[in-house]
Design a protein that fits this description.
Biased composition (Low complexity): 69-78
Organism: Microbacterium bovistercoris
Pfam family, one: Lsr2_DNA-bd
Shape: flat
Helix content: 25-40%
CATH architecture of the largest domain: 2-Layer Sandwich
Protein name: Lsr2 family protein
Strand content: 15-25%
CATH superfamily of the largest domain: Lsr2, dimerisation domain
Structural class: alpha+beta
Low-confidence stretches: 66-78
Radius of gyration: 19 Å
Distance between the termini: 58 Å
Domain Lsr2 dimerization: 1-62
Strand order of the largest sheet: 1-2
Number of strands: 4
C-alpha cells in the first residue's frame, strides 16, 4: 500500500487554500511571544507594509536562528542566575516551570530588562 502525505498551506486571514508559491509562513515576535502565520502573497505584502514603519524605527535584537556558541537557551542551563530568572519571569507574566530549561525567549527578556 502506498501512502501520500499532502502538506497544504491555508491563509490564516481568509482561509483560502494556497497553491505552491502563492503564500508563505511568516515568523514574528511581539511582547516576548513568538508567532507564525500562513499568508497568501497579498496578505504577506500587507503584513510587511503595516510593520514597515516600526521595523525602520526599531533596532535588531538578535537573530532568530542564533549562533550555537551564543545561544541564550544553551547558556540559560549553565547560568547561575536561573532562580533569579524564574522569579523575574513569574513576576512579569511569563510562564516558567520550577524545573528544567528556561526558554530562550524568557532569558532574552530577562537580560533586556537587566
Amino acid at each position: 500500500m502506498a501512502r501520500r502525505i499532502v502538506h497544504q498551506l491555508v491563509d490564516d486571514i481568509d482561509g483560502t487554500l494556497l497553491e505552491v508559491g502563492d503564500g508563505e509562513t511568516i515568523h514574528f515576535s511581539v511582547g516576548g511571544t513568538a508567532y507564525e502565520i500562513d499568508l497568501n502573497n497579498e496578505h504577506a505584502e500587507e503584513f510587511r507594509a503595516a510593520l514597515a514603519p516600526y521595523i525602520q524605527a526599531g533596532r535588531r535584537a538578535g537573530s532568530a536562528g542564533g549562533g550555537r556558541s551564543a545561544s541564550p537557551r544553551r547558556s540559560a542551563s549553565r547560568n547561575s542566575d536561573t532562580a533569579a530568572i524564574r522569579e523575574w519571569a513569574g513576576a512579569n507574566g511569563y510562564k516558567v516551570s520550577e524545573r528544567g530549561r528556561i526558554s530562550a525567549e524568557v532569558v532574552e527578556a530577562y537580560r533586556a530588562a537587566h
